[in-house]
Amino acid sequence: MMSGRSTTETVAAGLRRRYSAEKRFRTYGLVAIVFALICLGTLFVSIFGTGFSAFTQTMVRLEVTLYPQDIDPEGMGDPEVLSAANYQKLVKQAIRELFPDVTGRRDKRRLYEVISPGATFHVREMVLEDPSLIGQRVEFLVPMSDDIDQLAKGSIDANLPESARRVTDQQIEWYQRLKARDLVETRFNTTFFTAGDSREPELAGIWGAAVGSLLTMIVTLVLSFPLAIGAAVYLGEFAPKNRWTGLIEVNINNLAAVPSIVFGLLGLAVFLNFFGLPRSAPVVGGLVLAIMTLPTIIIAGRAALTSVPPSIREAALGVGASQVQTVFHHVLPLAMPGMLTGTIIGMARALGETAPLLMVGMVAFIVDIPKGFTDPATVLPVQVYLWADSPERAFVERTSAAIMVLLLFLIAMNALAVVLRNKFEKRW
């Protein structure tokens, strides 16, 4: 009886230890998940808190007199003449009319710094669109400088000593006077979504980088998808199982783990130095990202082909189909949802890459919107890198805003992969 009780107690003690260990393991897992969520939440709060203000812009209303003798002296309406007119002089005159008490040269220069240099371009564009405005006194809503914009958003503390901020006391007074006269407005920052890069933060936008990303992703998809699917089908369905195919599969798995900058060095050495392709062009960036994405799509394609039950192949072969017909009429359509999921995930990774594109020159300062695959361009991740390295405070919020846009694209692509998988994937 004593031996029986001892065995029972031993078993009970062992069960308690196992239950305690299981409970601790679950607790550790829960703590890890909570910690990860806190870190992720902190990241998102930091990015959204900093970047949300970039979607608004501080504007000021100016009444500009469009003198014909300054814009179109001959009255011919030639677009080249209208474009080359000295609109900066007219804008400065409109600012001085608001502050007639400002007379000193240094004070005037500081007064002009309250308005963005983009005001000149805005007035010119309006005149080019409607030349009938020449000779009239027209009210324009133009952007204020990045420092005044940051002051209006509360990012610059006016209570700090003048030496500790980029805005002088005099400029703060002028801004307050404009605001008291109800000339200052806060508008949605459409420039951020419609313009290319600029040295002036208030004029900088992501449209050029977005178009560059789109062109680069098109080249990447067109090259990587058919090559990767073809390689996956051959290795999974047709290639003989020997030492050479095993070596190829091992190398494909190893390439999927190679740092992305190595592919950038390959693109620099082969596509730029050897073939002489244009630097900082979407076609080169797409070639580099296609090579980088190939292993990921091939591995996903192999996994999708493996998930198709052997009974599908046996049934097709049993009714007289050839191996090619079996693969392309039965196996490949059933594996395609998984292949598409792997492709989208690979493309999402390529969209967020920076290092390989830096090596092929896509870090250049690009103002114009690219119109083709060989035009100079940059991409969203590189644009984030460029803005993060800029000293102006206004570029900090635009960096976070660009990250928000990039995250939105990445989340959309991953959500599309999940939708395709859930809708078309068949469980066996």
Describe the structure.
With 428 residues, the chain is mainly alpha-helical. Helix content is 67%, strand content 5%. The protein is built from 18 helices and three strands. It has helices at residues 2-51, 68-71, 79-83, 87-98, 105-112, 118-129, 146-152, 169-180, 191-194, 207-238, 243-256, 260-274, 282-307, 310-318, 323-351, 355-359, 380-388, 393-424, and strands at residues 56-65, 137-143, 184-188. The chain has a three-stranded antiparallel β-sheet. The mean pLDDT is 89.
Oligomer: single chain
- Please identify, by name, the CATH architecture of the largest domain: Orthogonal Bundle
The unreliable regions are none
Gyration radius, rounded: 31 Å
The CATH class assignment of the largest domain is: Mainly Alpha
Strand content: 5-15%
- The sequence of SSEs as H and E is HEHHHHHEHHEHHHHHHHHHH
Put simply, the count of helices is 18
Can you tell me the number of structural domains? 3
How would you sum up the major sheet?
3 strands, antiparallel
Structural class of the helix and strand makeup? mainly alpha
Basic shape: extended
Write the SSE topology:
Blueprint (H helix, E strand, L loop, with lengths): L1 H50 L4 E10 L2 H4 L7 H5 L3 H12 L6 H8 L5 H12 L7 E7 L2 H7 L16 H12 L3 E5 L2 H4 L12 H32 L4 H14 L3 H15 L7 H26 L2 H9 L4 H29 L3 H5 L20 H9 L4 H32 L4
Helix pairs in contact: 1-18, 4-6, 10-13, 10-15, 11-13, 12-13, 13-15, 14-15, 15-18, 17-18
